[in-house]
Inverse folding.
């Protein structure tokens, strides 16, 4: 059995003082172990990043971008191996892992544009003979801390752009499925990153706290659950670091009475149950406006869900795989129990689902719960499993109020045929990413990704234009040359 270590200064370093099991959620078996880096190991990674910084900062942006071009090619070349690692440790179905990787590669493509994106601004003659310009300089050593649910993609939201901007990086992936992030970082190195520019430390709270407290780390990008995001943001900010911390979600879809219900059902099925609902953009609440729409939605959804196939990640016939751990399986089922106890109607029950041959896998079947009310635990908290709640609202205003009152504001969507209703919704709703008849409004790589309210702590979103701002600091230079200097009166030959 392999023990996964760290990548520091271009070499694999093991720190096997403490280790943790990595599971294959499809079978429930232990797939390997990860060593959990202690303070000294993390400090060695920071030191490597700091040592690599001066030369990397001075490397022309076009040369940094050329590494990204090669990196993209290597990611495409090794896609099957990467998706295999993602599937084995995360449990997502192979086509879903491919989708994840391609979304990650798009961020590498965006980073290839660094020379264009870093051009800055220039003003001539801001005063007599005075010119001013603003340039975007890198920060130094930047850290990234990432969640389990997109083990290949979320690290690629961060370091390609950070590195293309001239920073050096220490990545701390999720300890639950760390192999793909380490493998991908080695590809980045093969693409031409000098040793120390990108380092990976595997670990838990001890590693994270070391990154948060070390003065050499200038900025922290975090993606994970809201309680940890809030902790990261508070501690990093208190230590004077720039921080962006993306948190959890409870994404609602409003289903208006005029919506095309077949379209709603087919797109909600993918958005609620794909990747076992373990997506921060998963649609976990459908708010039907009017009982007629709610009844139609529940009936059609129930019929559609009868065709859903849950099973191991390597069988492409399956619609979704297991959840990440046994503890998480129990937690998701606990939310279904609580919904039942609090008076909701369990229309389709995914508890106790059996996958023949994989009885020890961490499976939860697709679950549909109707007549959920806003005071129920299943509504208030993020479940992060294949569970779709249906809330019944009397009007669009009431539906929008529910969304605005929820602590999370990551993504949302409206299903309607009415352009004016959709426009009003987009304008007023207190959520960062909004879809109109689009269930997962995940921005493409040249826009930025970020929620509102307690789904994001900090001022700048992830990737896209906001990443350029996050990973650089602006310097504005005002320049004046009072005399003509060498142009007039200068001696170009030895005086005779
Ligand atoms: P998590 O918060 O448990 O872990 C995220 C990272 O934080 C991991 O690297 C982990 O090692 C570290 N961590 C965990 N506990 C810590 C502690 N006490 N101190 C310091 N570091 C700690 O999240 P997860 O379960 O891996 O991921 C799922 C969560 O991430 C969900 O809430 C999901 O909504 C969210 N998420 C959000 C986005 C987004 O863009 N908003 C994207 C993906 C996932």
């Amino acid at each position: 059995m392999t023990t996964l270590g760290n990548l520091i200064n271009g070499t694999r370093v093991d720190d096997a003082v403490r280790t943790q099991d990595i599971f294959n959620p499809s079978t429930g078996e232990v797939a390997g172990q990860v060593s959990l880096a202690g303070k000294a190991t993390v400090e060695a990674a920071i030191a490597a990043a700091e040592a690599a910084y001066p030369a990397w900062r001075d490397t022309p942006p076009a040369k940094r971008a050329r590494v990204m071009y090669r990196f993209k090619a290597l990611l495409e070349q090794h896609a099957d191996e990467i998706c295999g690692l993602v599937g084995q440790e995360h449990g997502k179905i192979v086509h879903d892992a491919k989708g994840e990787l391609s979304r990650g590669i798009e961020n590498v493509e965006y980073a290839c544009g660094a020379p264009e994106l870093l051009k800055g601004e220039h003003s001539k003659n801001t005063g007599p003979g005075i010119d001013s310009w603003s340039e975007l300089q890198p920060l130094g050593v930047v850290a990234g801390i990432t969640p389990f649910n997109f083990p290949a993609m979320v690290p690629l939201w961060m370091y390609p752009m950070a590195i293309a901007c001239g920073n050096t990086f220490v990545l701390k992936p999720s300890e639950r499925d760390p192999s793909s992030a380490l493998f991908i970082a080695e590809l980045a190195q093969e693409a031409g990153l000098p040793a120390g520019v990108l380092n990976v430390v595997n670990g838990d709270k001890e590693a994270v706290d070391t990154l948060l407290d070390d003065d050499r780390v200038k900025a922290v990008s975090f993606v994970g659950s809201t309680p940890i995001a809030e902790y990261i943001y508070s501690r990093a900010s208190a230590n004077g670091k720039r921080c962006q911390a993306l948190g959890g979600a409870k994404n609602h879809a409003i289903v208006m009475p005029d919506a095309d219900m077949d379209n709603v059902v087919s797109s909600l099925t993918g958005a609620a149950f794909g990747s076992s609902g373990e997506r921060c953009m998963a649609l976990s609440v459908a708010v039907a406006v009017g009982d007629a729409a709610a009844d139609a939605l529940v009936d059609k959804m129930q019929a559609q869900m009868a065709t859903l196939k849950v099973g191991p990640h390597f069988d492409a016939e399956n619609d979704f795989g297991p959840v990440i751990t046994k503890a998480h399986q129990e937690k998701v089922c606990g939310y279904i129990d609580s919904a039942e106890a609090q008076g909701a109607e369990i229309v389709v029950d995914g508890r106790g689902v059996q996958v023949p041959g994989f009885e020890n896998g961490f499976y939860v079947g697709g679950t549909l719960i109707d007549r959920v009310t806003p005071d129920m635990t299943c509504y208030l908290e993020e479940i992060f499993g294949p569970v779709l709640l249906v809330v019944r609202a009397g009007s669009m205003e009431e539906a929008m109020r529910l969304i605005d009152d929820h602590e999370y504001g990551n993504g949302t969507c409206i299903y309607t045929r009415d352009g004016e209703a959709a426009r009003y919704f987009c304008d007023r709703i207190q959520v960062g990413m909004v879809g109109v008849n689009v269930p997962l409004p995940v921005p493409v790589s040249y826009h930025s990704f970020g929620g509102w309210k307690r789904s994001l702590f900090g001022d700048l979103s992830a990737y896209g234009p906001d990443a350029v701002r996050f990973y650089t600091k602006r310097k504005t230079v005002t320049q004046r040359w009072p005399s003509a200097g060498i142009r007039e009166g200068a001696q170009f030959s030895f005086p005779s």
